[in-house]
Amino acid sequence: MRKILFYSLLLLVGLIASQWLPAIMGPAYAVFGDFVRVITMILLSFIMIRVGYEFNIDKSNLKQYGWDYIVAFTAASFPWILVTLYFVFVLLPADVWGTLAAWQETLLAGRFAAPTSAGVLFSMLAAAGLGTTWLYQKARILAIFDDLDTVLLLIPLKMLMVGLAWQLGLIVLVMIALLSMGFLLLHKIRIPVTWPWVAGYATVITLLSEFVYQGSKLIDESVPIHVEVLLPAFVLGCMLAYPKSAKTKSHSKEHHFAEIETPAEHRVSTLVAALFMVFVGLSMPLILSGDMAAKGAVTQDKVEPSLHAAGVPAAENAAAIIGEEQNIGRVTAAQPGMGWGLIALHVLIITLLSNLGKMFPAFCYRKEAHWRERLAVAIGMWPRGEVGAGVLVISLSYGIGGPIVTIAMLSLALNLLLTGFFIYFVKQITGPLPAYRDVVK
C-alpha cells in the first residue's frame, strides 16, 4: 500500500507541475515539453517491453483471445458512447443535435474516456503485490487490447476531420505487421533481457518512432505518421525468448526467470515506474476555464509537448486547412460559459459515466474466476493517462474548445488522481478469496 500511495503522490506532483510550468518557463517550455515527450515514451517502452516479455498465449486455444478482444472492445467503446451522448444531449443546445459538426467534435472529444492507461495500471498492480494473480494476467490482456482499439478507432475519427489520407492507411498496415510478427515469433528471439539492454531497446524504439514522425511531417505536416511506442515495445517483448532453464506453471502461465528477478532488476523497475508516474502527470494538457478555452487560450507551443508526450500525432495545421470548409471547432467552442460549480458537477457525472462503461468485464469470465476477481478486473480498467490526454490535445489542435474540453480534461485529471484509490480497492476486494477451480484447461 505504501508503494501505491507513493506512486499516487508522484502522479499528483507531475499533474500540478504540468499546470504551473508553462507559465513559469514561458517559451522555454516548448523545449522542456520535447524532453518530457521523449523520456515519457522511453519509460513507457521499457514498461511495455517487460509486459510483453511476461506475456504468453496458448496458440492451441486462440478462441479465448477472440473473446478477450471483444470484452476489451466494449471497455473501450462503452465509455466513449456514454460520454459522447452526454456531451451532445446535455452540454450542446438542441438546435445542433442533428448537425454533422456536433457529432464530429463530440465523437473525437469523447474518445478521451476510452483508453485505460496500460503503463499506469501495470505499475500500480505490481506495486500492490498482484503481479502473479489471475487479475493481473487478465487485466494485462484487456488493457493492451483496449489501447489498441483506441488507436485503431482514432484513425476513422481523424478521417472524419481531415478526409482520407494515405498516412492513416499506412499506420494500420504497420500495426497489422507488428501484431503478426509478435504472434509468429512469440518468444523466439534470443537476445539479452536485463535492464540495461531493455533500456537500450526502449530508447531505440522511441528514436525510430520520432524519426518516422518528424520525417513524415516533411511530406505532409497536417497528417504525420506516428506509430505509438506502446505497440512496437510490447511486440518486441513478446518476441524475446525465455531462458532455456525457465520453469513454467502450465495453468497460470507464470514464468520465473532468475536474470530479471535480482534485487538490482527490481530496483530499476521500481525507479522506472516511479519516473513514469511523474512524467505521465507532466504530460497532461493545461486545464482551462470554459471562457479561456472558448477564446483559444491554448497556444500550439503549449499543446504540442503534451500531445507528443501522450504518443499521439499532432495536427498543427489541420484546423487552419479545413476549419473554414467544415466549421470544425465552431459548435463546441460556441457553447455558453458556465461557472466552476456547474463544471464540477459535469466532471463528476462524466467520470461516473466513463467508469460505468468499463464495467462489462465484471459480467464475463464466470467460469474462470470468482465474482470479486471479475469486479476487480473491471475496476482495474478505470485508470486513464497519457493516451486519453493525447486525444484531448488532438481535439484542441482541431479548434474544438469550450466547456466540453475543459470538463473532459478535469475528468481525466480526477481519474488520474484516484488511480491509487482504485488499485487499493481492487486489492481489498480480491483477497482473501475462496478456493475457486479454474475449469478452463
Write the layout of secondary structure elements.
Layout: H1 2-25, H2 29-54, H3 63-91, H4 100-109, H5 118-127, H6 134-162, H7 166-184, H8 195-219, H9 230-239, E1 247-248, E2 255-256, H10 263-282, H11 290-294, H12 300-309, H13 318-326, H14 330-333, H15 340-356, H16 371-380, H17 386-397, H18 403-417, H19 419-430
Helix pairs in contact: 1-10, 1-19, 2-5, 2-8, 2-9, 2-10, 2-12, 3-4, 3-6, 3-15, 5-6, 5-10, 5-19, 6-16, 7-9, 12-17, 15-18, 16-19, 17-18
Rg, alpha carbons: 21 Å
The third-level CATH topology is Na+/H+ antiporter like fold
The low-confidence runs, each spanning 5 or more residues with pLDDT under 50, are: 248-254, 289-326, 436-441
| Domain count | 1
Q: In oligomeric terms, what are we looking at?
A: single chain
Q: Quickly give the CATH architecture.
A: Up-down Bundle
- Give the termini distance in whole angstroms: 34 Å
Order of helices and strands: HHHHHHHHHEEHHHHHHHHHH
> How many strand units?
2
Biggest β-sheet description: 2 strands, antiparallel
Strand content: under 5%
Number of helices: 19
Tertiary shape: globular
Percent range of helical residues: 55-70%
The CATH class name reads Mainly Alpha
Mean pLDDT: 77
What is the SS-derived class? mainly alpha
Q: What is the spatial order of strands in the main beta sheet? A: 1-2
